[in-house]
């Protein structure tokens, strides 16, 4: 039989097969769930195991999501994005450690200590910049240097820095020119006690180029240089430092420290010095303090009595100025540091450290750690060409100054009177 139009489809419908030639096909069975191929997969294609990443192949720890971990997509509504950190307001706030008040106290104390140190240094530097300089070193031959440091302290009757009203109030007058009311030698040895020695202003001495006259005349004739040369020539000591204070400086220092207490055995009334003091202990300031150290006519010892009061006043001033109150009280410290700058003059080469050494030595003298004495006298009221004058005891004076020239003050106590 010739093939028809659909002969080629016989194989599909098995029309060319004879009955009984092949077994009947098995009925359809339901496969277990484990044998069901994935959706869309081919039943005759075996499943491939999941591919391992490079990290899995290298033995890295498995970072894949465990079955018990939530899926990002589940957390974000199926967006597939990693979860976001909670807002700052929702984050737990760690409690801050409690503040230690002790640290604040230490910081404040440290600032105050630093400020005090700066203040203590800055004030003297400022005051020192306003101090006048004076040439005092004489020319020509001078004595050799002695051990230690020798200061010539001069209290002049200069009215510089005083107004007319102040001159009237203090009773200084308005005399022109310059004279010296006070002259002292402060010797600071390398070791041992410092010595403060008064040189009476009426001492009758040889003044280079001017013959014999009272010591205070040397300043009138030739200023600090001639006064220094006269002292050096008559003592054999070389003057290392020169310090001069006028009336205004003295009064300002006294007032800055709140006055000085003195105890009088009997009342003092002196018209020329403008003082009227009662007996007993009292605090002297301004006019009364200045009159007390200048007065001599009402003193039975004359010029010798005056130098004793001058040493007493200078020692008391140094002691009070060096007290802790002068340092810790900022107002007092400022006033004291600047009190004498208007009428204070020092040598051209005098340093602030030299003045500090002088202050320390004066503190020792005022606290019984030093010696206060007057040059040995043979006649306190000698009649000379310059009028009533003071004569030195040449032998004892030579011995006293000779000991100082050797740098030794241990034997000067014999001259205490």
TrEMBL record:
It comes from the Bacteria. Pfam families: LytR_cpsA_psr. Coiled coil: none annotated. Residues 179-322 form the Cell envelope-related transcriptional attenuator domain. The chain crosses the membrane at residues 105-128. Residues 1-101, 138-157 are annotated as: Disordered. Keywords: Membrane, Transmembrane, Transmembrane helix. Belongs to the LytR/CpsA/Psr (LCP) family. PANTHER family: POLYISOPRENYL-TEICHOIC ACID--PEPTIDOGLYCAN TEICHOIC ACID TRANSFERASE TAGU (PTHR33392:SF6). This is Cell envelope-related function transcriptional attenuator common domain-containing protein. It comes from Microlunatus soli.
């Amino acid at each position: 039989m010739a093939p028809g139009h659909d002969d080629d489809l016989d194989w599909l419908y098995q029309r060319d097969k004879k009955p009984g030639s092949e077994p009947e096909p098995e009925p359809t069975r339901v496969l277990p769930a484990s044998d069901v191929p994935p959706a869309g997969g081919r039943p005759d294609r075996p499943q491939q195991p999941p591919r391992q990443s490079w990290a899995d192949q290298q033995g890295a720890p498995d970072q894949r999501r465990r079955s018990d971990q939530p899926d990002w997509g589940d957390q974000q509504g199926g967006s597939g994005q990693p979860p976001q950190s909670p807002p700052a307001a929702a984050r737990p706030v760690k409690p801050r450690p409690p503040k230690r008040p002790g640290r604040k106290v230490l910081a404040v104390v440290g600032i105050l200590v630093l400020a005090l140190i700066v203040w203590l240094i800055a004030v003297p530097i400022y005051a020192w910049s306003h101090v006048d300089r004076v040439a005092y070193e004489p020319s020509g031959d001078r004595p050799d240097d002695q051990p230690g440091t020798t200061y010539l302290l001069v209290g002049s009757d200069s009215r510089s820095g005083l107004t007319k009203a102040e001159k009237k109030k203090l009773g200084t007058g308005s005399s022109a020119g310059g004279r010296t009311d006070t002259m002292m030698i402060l010797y600071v040895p390398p070791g041992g006690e410092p010595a403060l020695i008064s040189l009476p202003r009426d001492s009758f001495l040889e003044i280079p180029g001017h013959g014999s006259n009272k010591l205070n005349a040397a300043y009138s004739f030739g200023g600090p240089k001639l006064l220094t040369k006269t002292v050096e020539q008559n003592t054999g000591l070389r003057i290392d430092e020169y310090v001069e204070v006028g009336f205004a400086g003295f009064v300002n220092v006294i007032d800055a420290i709140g006055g000085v207490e003195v105890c009088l055995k009997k009342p003092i009334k002196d018209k020329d010095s403008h003082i009227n003091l009662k007996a007993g202990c009292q605090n002297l300031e301004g006019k009364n303090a200045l009159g007390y150290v200048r007065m001599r006519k009402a003193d039975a010892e004359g010029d010798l009595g005056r130098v004793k009061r001058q040493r007493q006043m200078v020692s008391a001033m140094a002691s009070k100025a060096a007290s802790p109150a002068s340092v810790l009280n900022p107002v007092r410290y400022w006033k004291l540091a600047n009190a004498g700058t208007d009428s204070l003059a020092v040598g051209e080469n005098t340093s602030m450290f030299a003045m500090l050494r002088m202050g320390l030595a004066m503190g020792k003298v005022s606290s019984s750690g030093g010696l206060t004495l007057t040059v040995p006298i043979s006649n306190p009221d000698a009649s000379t060409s310059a009028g009533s004058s003071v004569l030195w005891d040449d032998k004892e004076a030579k011995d006293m100054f000779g000991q100082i020239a050797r740098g030794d003050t241990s034997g000067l106590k014999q001259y205490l009177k």
